[in-house]
Design a protein that fits this description.
With 236 residues, the protein is of the alpha/beta class. The longest helix is centred in the C-terminal third of the chain and has 19 residues.
Length: 236
Amino acid sequence: MTRAALVFHERDHALGVRNVGSIGPALRDRGFETTTFSFEGDCRDADRPTASSFDLIVLMGSPDAAYDDALPWLAEEITWLGDAVAQRVPVLGVCFGGQLLARVLGGTVTRAAESEHGFVTVRTESDELIPQGPWMQFHDDTFTLPPGAEPLATTAAALQAFVSGPHIGLQFHPEITVDVFESWIEGWDARGVRAEVEASVDVPAIRAEVARREQASIEACSRLIDAVLARAGVSR
């Protein structure tokens, strides 16, 4: 059985599993056994498998910053991810996950000069790997290109995707579904930050667009997973 780790970053386990969105079903449809877990707080799994026990690792998004070393769980996740990279276990990083992958590969993560929220069309260097979209964006931070990596897609605001060996880092959210976005809103409520988010983001408009584009987003994610697996050489 081909195994994939889906690593989420959410204090509530049920919300974290929902955050995986359409990536989980896409992998299971391709014959993967998926294991979903977190390094964070009450969601931390003491019996977490080693990175080398997986054929693919997917790192999901987070409300936290990939450069915030005050996070008590981040150092352990960086070490685990570094082990995956050292053993050439293919990694797909999504938003925070892409930022953390960039950091482990030698890039930097900083506050972005311009945030991106909502669906955005990207300029792609490889339509086979990263079509132009539009892709869902929801980020205030950004990453630089790691040494030796190749850029795959950009917008005027940020680098959107890169490839380094078998690893691919994304700034956008291919996993988006109605339920994923609702889980984000529930997470903002739980952390008491919803008013802060809504002060700078038109949440109702994005919520409506997520619903309108849901099926197209699921199909785009499915195609992206095929491209990622082909690039990584992961058999199904």
